[in-house]
User: Fold these one by one.
Assistant:
Number 1:
Amino acid sequence: MFDSTRTLYDKPRTVCDCLYPGEVTGKQFTSVWTRDPRPAKSPGRSRDEIVRAAVELLDAEGLEGLSMRKLGARLGTGATSIYWYVANKDELLELAYDDFWGEITLPEPTAQTWQQTVAAAAHGMRRLILRHPWSGELIGRMPSLGPNALAFAAVLRRTFKLAGFAGLEIDYANTTLTAYVFGMTIPELAWNKSKADGGYDPDTMREAVTKATAGIPELTESIHNSWDLDPDQVREMAFSFGLGAVLDGLEARLVT
Amino acid sequence: MFDSTRTLYDKPRTVCDCLYPGEVTGKQFTSVWTRDPRPAKSPGRSRDEIVRAAVELLDAEGLEGLSMRKLGARLGTGATSIYWYVANKDELLELAYDDFWGEITLPEPTAQTWQQTVAAAAHGMRRLILRHPWSGELIGRMPSLGPNALAFAAVLRRTFKLAGFAGLEIDYANTTLTAYVFGMTIPELAWNKSKADGGYDPDTMREAVTKATAGIPELTESIHNSWDLDPDQVREMAFSFGLGAVLDGLEARLVT
DNA sequence: GAGTGGAATCGAACACTGTACGAGATCCCC
DNA sequence: GGGGATCTCGTACAGTGTTCGATTCCACTC
C-alpha cells in the first residue's frame, strides 16, 4: 500500500500521465489530504509534533516568522529533516491550518434555537481567528479540505438543515454565515498587525488615520462618532450587529 | 517642506524621538499614506509607473510572483532603483492595493433604492477582487488607508446614511456589507488558485474533494446536490442569495 | 553477535528573496 | 563650467525553500 521507496515528492499521477510518462508536464490538484501520510511509527518525532511546533511558531511570530530553519531549531533537529514528514512548506501550512480548525468547539444544536446555535458558532470562529491571526492569511490561499475544517462545516450545515433550509439553500445559508464571520474578522487582523508591527501607540495611530481621512467629510464624521469609544468594544458591537442582520435575513428566506 | 537629504527610510519621528535621538528604538505605525511622497518631477519614470507595472506583474503572476528584481526587469531598470521611489516592498504593495481600489466604479446613489445601489457596489467589489486575486491576500495584511479605498468607503457610507441609518449604525451596516463581500469572495480565490496551480483538471479535483469528504454524510449530500451544476454559476447564486439576506437583515434593522 | 535494509537525519549547495550601501551618472540652475 | 540635487545601479549580506547524497540509526533475520 505504502511504497517507501517513493519520496513524498512523487506526486500522484493520473492515468494520462502513466500513459505518456515524461511527456506530460502539467501538474494537477494536490493537497496533503489527497495523499496517504507517512506512517508515524516512531514514538518520538512525528508529523503531529511538527505541526504542533509549527502552530506555536505561527502564533508567536506570525506567518512570515515561520521558516523551516527556525522550526527545525525549535524541534531540535536540522531544518531539512522536516521534509521527511512533510512534502513542502505549503503542505505544512495546510496541516497547521487544519490543526487550527480542530481547536474550535463544535456547536451543539440541542435545546436551542438555530439562531442561538449559529450565533455561538460565529462568535467561536471569530475568537479562534483572532487567537491565531496567521489563519486569516491562509483563508484566501488554500481551500480547507482537512478533516477538522470539514467536521466543523458539516456540523454547521446540519444546523441549517435542521432549521428548515432545503437543497442548495442549506449550503447557501452556511456559506453566507461563514463569509460574514471571515469578512468581519480578517480586516481586524490587519489592524492588529499594524498595531503590533508599529509598537502600538494610540496617538500616532489616531493621527495617521485622521490625516488619511482628512478631506473626506463622511469619514471624519465616522471617526468622530467613535472617537471616545474603545476600539475593541466597537468591533464587538459591530460584529454582533451584523451577525444579527445576517441571521434575520436568513430567517426571512426560511419562512417563504 | 520636503527634505531631500533624508532618504525614504528615515521614518517620521515623534517629538519624543527628536528629544532623545538614537536612544529610542521603538518603531511606530507607518504607512505610505502618512508620509509625503517623492515629488514626481521627471516625466519618465515615476511612482505611478512603478505601481502600474507592479499591478500588472501581480495580475500575471500573483503575490508570490512579484519580486523587486522581476519588477525592475519589467521596467527596464535595476531592481534597487525602485527604492528611490518606494521605501520598501510592503509600501509598494500598499500602493498597488490602493490602485486596485481605484478601479472600482463608484456607485451612484440616485434614482435607485439604497438596496439597488448597495447590491451594485457589492457585485462590483466581487468582480474586482476576482479580477485581481492577489488583493485577497492583502486584505488581512494591511489596513486600506489609501485615497481610493477611502473614497469608496465614503460613498458606500453615504449610501447607508441616506438609507436612514444613524450614528454608529451607519458604519455597522457598511462594515457588515463589505465583510460579507470579502468573506464570500476570498475563499473563492483559494479555489481558483488551486485550480491554476494544479492545472485545472475537473475530474481529479472532484475526486480529491470526494475523497476528502467521504465519511461525512452531511457533506457528501452537499456535493451531490450541486454535482451537475457549473461551479461558477453556483457561486454566483450563492453570492446573490447571501447578499439578499444581508440586505434584508439590514433593512429590518432600519425600520425599528 | 553479525549482517542487512529500510527509516530517519542532516550538511552542503543552489537559486532566489528583500534591501543597505556607496559609488557613479545625469540633470538643471547659477 | 561648477556645483548641488536627483536618480541609477552593482555589489554584498543575511535569509529563504528545497534538492541531493552521504551518513547514522535501529529493528530484524540468520
Note: Chain A has two domains: 15-101, 103-255.
Number 2:
Amino acid sequence: MSDDIHAADGRVIGARAQATRRKLLDATSKLLTEQGILDLRVVDISREIGTSPATFYHYFNDVDEAILELAVEATEDEKPLVDHLTPGWTQTDGLKRAGDFVDAYMTFWDTHRAVLRVRNLKAEEGDRHFRKVRTEANLLLMDSLQNMIREGVAAGRLPNSLDPFTTAAAVVAMCERLLGYQPEMAKRGSSKSTIRDTLATLIFGIITGHV
Amino acid sequence: MSDDIHAADGRVIGARAQATRRKLLDATSKLLTEQGILDLRVVDISREIGTSPATFYHYFNDVDEAILELAVEATEDEKPLVDHLTPGWTQTDGLKRAGDFVDAYMTFWDTHRAVLRVRNLKAEEGDRHFRKVRTEANLLLMDSLQNMIREGVAAGRLPNSLDPFTTAAAVVAMCERLLGYQPEMAKRGSSKSTIRDTLATLIFGIITGHV
DNA sequence: CCGAAAATCTGACGGCCAGTCAGAATCCGC
DNA sequence: GCGGATTCTGACTGGCCGTCAGATTTTCGG
C-alpha cells in the first residue's frame, strides 16, 4: 500500500499532475453543487479548468471515480464529529452536548451536501464502491451512538425493545434526511435554529432516555 | 380543469394511446428499479415495450415528466397511511399502532423505492416540480403527526423545546432514510423485523412522550 | 363493407457528449 | 540546451437525444 496519487492508468504522478487532478476534483464538486449529478458533463468539468475532456480521462476512468474520491474526502471531514459522541451525557449537560454535535453535523453537511447526495443515491442504487464508503462513514457515528444507547438501556432509561445498532442508524438517518429537507422547511417557517434545537432535543432524548 | 389524459402536445388521447402511455410509465418504473436513474435511457424504455423512442416523446416531453407522474401516483398510495396517525395513542395501545403504521409505511416504500429515490434527488437538487410533489406527500403525514405531537406537548409528556412541525419532519425523515439503509443493515444483522420494532418504539416515544 | 379522416406510431436524421489514442507540448536532470 | 519522461490535447468513433415528416392503424358515416 502506498499513499502516492495515481493517474487512471495507475502510474504515480508528479506535482504538476497532482495540481491538475486536484483542480479537476474541485471543479467536479463545484459543478455538482451548481448543476446536480444529472446534468454533470465531463466537457463542462474540463472547460471549468480550461482543459480538455481527454485530460479528465487521464486522471479518472469516469465521473463516478472522481465523485467517489470526493466522497472519501467527505468521510475524512466526518471523523472529528465522533468527538461529540462520548458516553456520559447527563441530564444537565446532555442537551448542550447534543446541540454541539448538531452544529458540527450541520456544518459538515453544508460543506459536502452535493457529494453526499450522490454518494447516497449510488449506494442505494447498489453501487459497491459507494456503498462501502457510505457504510464506513455511517459506522463512524453509529459505533459511538451505539455505546451511548447501550448505556441508556443498561441504566433502564431506554426500553430494551430498542436495538442499539438500529437505533443508532435511525439517529443518523434522521439527521441526514432532516438536513436534506432544510431548504424547503425554511420556506414553511422552520428556521435553521429551530431545526437545530429540535434535532438536539430529539437526539438527546433518544440516546440517553432523559427528558 | 379536466381529468383527461394528454399527450406531450396537450391533445386529449383515446383508449389505445392511453394503454401505450401506461405501458411506457410501467416500463419506466421497471427500468428505474433495475438500472437506476443514471443509466435510464429512453431507447431502453421504448424497446422494453417494443416501440420506438419517438413514441415515448409523443407522450412525455422528457424522462423527468414520466418519473414525475410516477411520483404523483406514489403520493396517492401514501394517502391511506394517515389513517394510522390519529391522535389518542395511549400508553397501552400506542406501540401497536406505531407498529401498524411502520408496517404500512414499509410496504409503501418497497413498492415505490426507485421512484421516491429520484423524486427526492430532484427535489434536493432544486427541481420545482419534484419539490412540490415531495412537499405535498410529506405534509400528508406531517399534518397528522404534528397534531399528535402538539397533544403530547400540551399534556406535558413532551418538552416544549420541540417544535411540532420540525419534529414531525424529523419523524418522516427518520422513516424514509432508515428504509433507504435497510438493504445494507440487513447484512449487518439488523433484520426487517428488528428495524420495524425499533422504528415503532422510537416513533411511539417521540410523538407521544410515553415510554 | 368501403373510403376518408383522425389518431397513433416510427424511420431516419442532426446535434451533442462520452471515451480513446496518437502525438504534441512541457518539464527536468544532467 | 539536449534527451527522455511526464503531462496534455486535437480529432475521431460511436451512441443517445429529441424532432419531424410521413407511414400505419383505427374509427365512423353512409
Note: The mean pLDDT of chain A is 94.
Number 3:
Amino acid sequence: MDFDTSAELFKALADPNRLKVLKLLVSPPANSCAGPGSVCACDLEGELGLAQPTVSHHMKLLVRAGLVTATKRGKWTEYTLNPQGFEQACELLGALQQPDSNAAPCPPKTLQGVAS
Amino acid sequence: MDFDTSAELFKALADPNRLKVLKLLVSPPANSCAGPGSVCACDLEGELGLAQPTVSHHMKLLVRAGLVTATKRGKWTEYTLNPQGFEQACELLGALQQPDSNAAPCPPKTLQGVAS
DNA sequence: CTCAGACATTGACATCAATCAATCTGAGAC
DNA sequence: GTCTCAGATTGATTGATGTCAATGTCTGAG
C-alpha cells in the first residue's frame, strides 16, 4: 500500500469546493451550456462562485487524482465523473481496515457512470 | 450533504503519516508497549519516526475526525480504529456518486435527507 | 488571416497544515 | 508529599494550498 499516492487521492477529496464539483458532475444544472448531462468549466464557475483560474486549478487536481475525466469537445471541455477513481478510494478505505494490505472494498460496486 | 464537514473527514485521511497510523492500528507491532492488539503513542512515535508532539497532533486529528478512538489506560493512551468513521467515509463516497444528495453507499443503508 | 470565446498557465499573496523544541498536565511509583 | 514518565499544549518555522489578476493558448467563426 502506497501511503503517499493514497494520501494524494484523499487530498483531492479534502476540499469543499471540489466535493461540490463532484456533486455537480452527477447532478448537472439544467442550464448547462454544454447541454444536459454535461458540465463544462463555465458552468462550474457560476455554480461555485469562484474565479475561472481557481476552477481550472481544482479540475486539474480532480483529473490528476483520477476522480474526473476531461474531454475536449470543440471550444468547451466536458467533465465527467470517473467511477474508477471512486472505486479506488473505496478500496483504500477497505484496505485500511484489513490486517492484510489489500482487501475487498465496501460492496460489489457497479456504478452507473454518467448516463446521458 | 455538508461539504465542509465531509471535506474535514477526507482531510484526516489526506496525509501519509496518518494513513500509516491507521494501518498500524490494524496491524500493531509485536513489541507494543501497551500489549498485543493495542497501540500507544510511544509505539507510533517509533514506527513513524516522528517527534512526540507531531504524533500527538496527528492522533488528535484522527480522533476528531471519528476515525480513531482514544482510551486512557493508566499512564498510557490506547488507540483503536473506529469503524464508524470508515463507514461514514464510505457513505460519503457513495453519496458523491448518486444523483440524490444522500444515497445508499457501500453498506446497505437507507438514508433520506435534504437535497442541497 | 483576424477576432472572440473557453480554458490553461503564471505569478503573487494569504491562509492553512506539518513539524519540532520547550513546556505543561496528570497518573503511577516512591 | 516528591519524582518520573506518557502524552497533550504552546509557539515558532517552514512548506503546501486556495485564491485571483493578468496573460497565454487553442479552437471555431467570420
Note: The two ends of chain B are 7 Å apart (CA to CA).
Number 4:
Amino acid sequence: MLSKKTKYGIKALTYICGHESDGPIPISKISEAENISHKFLETILLTLKKGGIVSSKKGKGGGYYLLKDPYEILMSDIIRLLSGPIAMVPCVSLNFYEKCDDCPDEETCGINRLMLEVRDSTLKVLREKSLAQLTKQSSRQNIT
Amino acid sequence: MLSKKTKYGIKALTYICGHESDGPIPISKISEAENISHKFLETILLTLKKGGIVSSKKGKGGGYYLLKDPYEILMSDIIRLLSGPIAMVPCVSLNFYEKCDDCPDEETCGINRLMLEVRDSTLKVLREKSLAQLTKQSSRQNIT
DNA sequence: GTAATACCCCATTAAGTCGATAGGGTTTAT
DNA sequence: ATAAACCCTATCGACTTAATGGGGTATTAC
C-alpha cells in the first residue's frame, strides 16, 4: 500500500511541476491547494530535498522548486525515496538488498524468483513514467 | 513488503504441494520443516481454508491438503487472501475497491492512472504463476 | 536593520498493524 | 477413551504511520 507520505509527496511535486513558472512555491500554498497538513508536508519536502529532487529558497518569496527537468524525474525515484524499496522482498531489492534469514538458497527459492519478476514489471512501469507526464494528466481537468 | 504471514503461507502451500502423495499434512510437520511457529501457522492455514485453497481432515492421521489442482492455484489468489489487495492504492483495486477521500476525479488523477498500470503488470505476473510451478522450482534443490 | 516570511529540527502522541504467544475447546480416527 | 489434530479468542510487545507542537535559524523585501 502506498503511504500517505508518498501520496502527498507525489501530489506536492505535481503541484510544483504545474506551477513552475511562478517561481519557488511555498509550503503553505501546496498544503492549502492539496489539503495536506503543513507540518507533515514540511518533512516530506525535506526528504525530497535530501534526495536531490527539489531544492528550496529561503526568505520572503521563497519556496520549493524542481532541481531537474521534470521529464527526467522518474516515478520510481520518487517512490523509492519516500516509500523505500519497491520490491516486495528485501532479497530482490536493487537498492535495499538484504539476505533472507530463513531462505538457504536464493537460486532455488520460488518466492525469490516470483518476486524478482514482480519487481521487474513494476519497475518497468515506474521508470517509464516521469513527473512531467503525471502532471500533464492531472491538469487535464483544468482545460475542459 | 510481503508480510511474514504471506511468506509463511506460500511456504506452507509449497510444502503441502510437494508432499501431496503423503496424504493430509499435519501442521506440526510443516512448522518443523519450514521453521514456522506452530500457532502462527495455524491461523494462516485457517485463512487459506476459509479462502477455499486448502481443506483439512481432523483426527489422528489428519492434516491439510490442497482443494484444487495445484496448476490452478494462482499466486495472485494466495497473496490476495493473505495480504489483501495487490494494488498499491484502494481506488485501483479489483477486489477491494474503495474511493479515495481526497481525490475528486479518478479519471484525471495521475496517481490513479499510474497505479492502475502497476497493478495490471503485477497481476499479469502473479496470475501466470501457479503453486505447482513455484513448487517445482523450490524442490529443484533436492534433485542435484 | 528589522520584521516578516519561510525553511529547518526535535520530540511526542494516538492509532493501527504485525508477529507471536497462550490457553482452552471441539472433532475424529484408532 | 485417548491422543492427535483442528478450531477459536484474547492478549502482548514492538514497530510504523500520520500528524502535532514548539522552537529555532536563515533570508528576503522594505
Note: Chain A has two domains: 4-69, 75-128.
